[in-house]
From TrEMBL:
Gene assigned in the entry: potA
Protein keywords: ATP-binding, Cell membrane, Membrane, Nucleotide-binding, Translocase, Transport
Annotated family: Belongs to the ABC transporter superfamily. Spermidine/putrescine importer (TC 3.A.1.11.1) family.
InterPro entries: AAA+_ATPase, ABC_SmlMolc_Importer, ABC_transporter-like_ATP-bd, ABC_transporter-like_CS, Mo/tungstate-bd_C_term_dom, NA-bd_OB-fold, P-loop_NTPase, PotA-like
Assembly, per entry: The complex is composed of two ATP-binding proteins (PotA), two transmembrane proteins (PotB and PotC) and a solute-binding protein (PotD).
Class of this enzyme: translocase
Organism of origin: Pseudaminobacter soli
A molecular function GO annotation: ABC-type putrescine transporter activity
Protein name: Spermidine/putrescine import ATP-binding protein PotA
Any single Gene Ontology cellular-component annotation: ATP-binding cassette (ABC) transporter complex
Function: Part of the ABC transporter complex PotABCD involved in spermidine/putrescine import. Responsible for energy coupling to the transport system.
Domain called ABC transporter: residue spans: 10-244
Amino acid sequence: MPEMPDKNAIEVRDVSKLFGTGDAQFAALDNVSVSIRENEFFTLLGPSGCGKTTLLRLIAGFDYPTDGQILLYGQDIAPLPPFKRPVNTVFQSYALFPHMTVGQNIAFGLEMLGKPKAEIEARVAEMLKLVRMEALKDRKTSQISGGQQQRVALARALAPQPKVLLLDEPLSALDYKLRKEMQIELKRLQHETGITFIFVTHDQEEALTMSDRIAVMSAGKILQVGSPWDIYDRPAVRFVADFIGETNFLHADVVSANDGRATVRLSSGKEIPATFPSGSSPQGKVTLVVRPEHARVAAPNGTSAHVGHIENVVYLGTDTHFHVRLDDGTPFIVRQQNSRNGHNGFAKAERVGIEFGQDVAQILKD
Ligand code: ATP
């Protein structure tokens, strides 16, 4: 794991944002608190309408919180208008000036700040090099491709050396291949400039690939903040487990729980170890989450956590998905890597046992 600096670039403290009036009033952000560290690639991930853009707009200063505070390096930024904040935004639509050249677009923010001509020229050259667009400096932005426009938008936003760059779904207009390329490019730019990036997406794969940490949002709240590993392997609540990748949910009873480790009894009667999120103290009936690739199917035997029958087998080249119906009626998906000489040898309707690896079951918070 890379070592993380612990200085906070942005602190969002108890921020709420209400829209509408009277009965129609609702909270686009509902008492949100989160700290974003300096030099971090931080992602706000959640479904459409969960409040991601609203939070970015408050940080940028395009709108004001109804309640709460936003601090930039410890200073409350409420009194600062957007152009006085050391924060810049890259929009989904790029918002480039079509009648200007690539170079003029990149120079724009610096000219607004009244920087000397020589400094602007040097900075534009540096930015063109950073985004690998030197050859297209004098081309109008209406005459370059979508991917190239994206690079210009990034260069324009980075040129005034903001402390924080806000990126609102900047890759969503690109086709799949270009999007993959730009994901790598964005990571490189963040690494080379050392600027804190706050990236908004509703694409869980994109969030897992790019981020140092992810905040998963739903209905105006942040449900969990953590590294991609935390979010994928240690989801705290059902929404996070469900939103990120494929997941199995199992019922269990807690036998004992201490120090983040528990023993739980499955409906099969089998007892297995499980982890649980810090700050919770599970007891009684709980829901467990197990990722499909952390379980395997085998001939039923004394070590099987559950027994069931295969309802469907989906061969996917490197992997096979087994859709199993457990004896207690719960559906359960196993994703198993195929061996070199073919598939895994279990067929539809066959009875199988489910086996778990070590530490793969996580107890969800209520
Ligand atoms: P998307 O991924 O679709 O952009 P989002 O997570 O960014 O969604 P927001 O744009 O932050 O969501 O919107 C959160 C909620 O607030 C939505 O229900 C939206 O309709 C509402 N909303 C946003 N701006 C306003 C506004 N100016 N007036 C009224 N409602 C608004």
